[in-house]
Amino acid sequence: AEDKYANPITVFFHTCFKVAAVAAYLIGGFFSASYVINFVVTITLLGIDFWIVKNVSGRILVGLRWWNEINEKGGSIWRFESLDQQQLNKNEAWLFWWSLYINAGVWIALGIVALIKFNLDYMLIVIVAIVLNSANTAGYTKCQKGYRIFC
């Protein structure tokens, strides 16, 4: 039988900063009345989450890696690498993909709420969250769907 999670530390950090960023966004006002502190804490957690997903958990949990290069003409070139998908832990892969999509959905929902409330300050945080999450989601989805340059 396959272990539930072969890399529990990676699974923890993959989910930890997603949850922490949303929590900081939602309850940061209870700990500080300062928008700037809430902004800095949430954006820092979002940045850490982006880095962990892109550089650590993507490689370990789903065997994928992506990056973007700029060529001499200023064009953008996506680069991809993929390990043999048959060797991956299915539970970890499931958690990786669903956490990416659910996290995007949560931030979109928070963006809708910020728009309805006309809370443009917090909308800035949501836009950063959506951009960072979308970059990882697009990169890993393209890599997984076979747009791989390096295999």
Topology of this structure?
Layout: H1 8-31, H2 35-62, E1 64-70, E2 76-82, H3 90-116, H4 120-144
Antiparallel strand pairs: 1-2
InterPro entries: TVP23-like (IPR008564)
Membrane topology: Multi-pass membrane protein
Family: Belongs to the TVP23 family.
Summarize the entry for a quick read:
This protein is mainly alpha-helical and 151 residues long. It is built from four helices and two strands, in the order ααββαα. It is a multi-pass membrane protein.
Q: Tags for this entry?
A:
mainly alpha, two-stranded antiparallel ribbon, 4 helices, 2 strands, 9% strand, transmembrane helix, Golgi apparatus membrane protein TVP23, membrane
**Proportion of residues in β-strands:** 5-15%
- Shape summary: globular
Low-confidence stretches: none
Strand/helix succession: HHEEHH
Count of helical segments?
4
Main beta-sheet annotation? 2 strands, antiparallel
Major beta sheet, strand line-up: 1-2
Helix content, binned percent: 55-70%
Got a strand count? 2
Mean pLDDT: 87
**Structural class of the helix and strand makeup?**
mainly alpha
What's the alpha carbon Rg, rounded to whole Å?
A: 17 Å
What separation lies between the terminal Cα atoms? 28 Å
Membrane topology: Multi-pass membrane protein
Keywords: Golgi apparatus, Membrane, Transmembrane, Transmembrane helix
Main location: Golgi
Protein name: Golgi apparatus membrane protein TVP23
Describe this structure in words.
The chain crosses the membrane at residues 9-27, 33-53, 95-116, 122-140. The structure is a single chain. By secondary structure, the chain is mainly alpha-helical. Helix content is 69%, strand content 9%. It contains four helices and two strands. A two-stranded antiparallel sheet has the order 1-2. A hairpin with a 5-residue loop joins strand 1 and strand 2. Helix 1 (8-31) runs antiparallel to helix 2 (35-62).
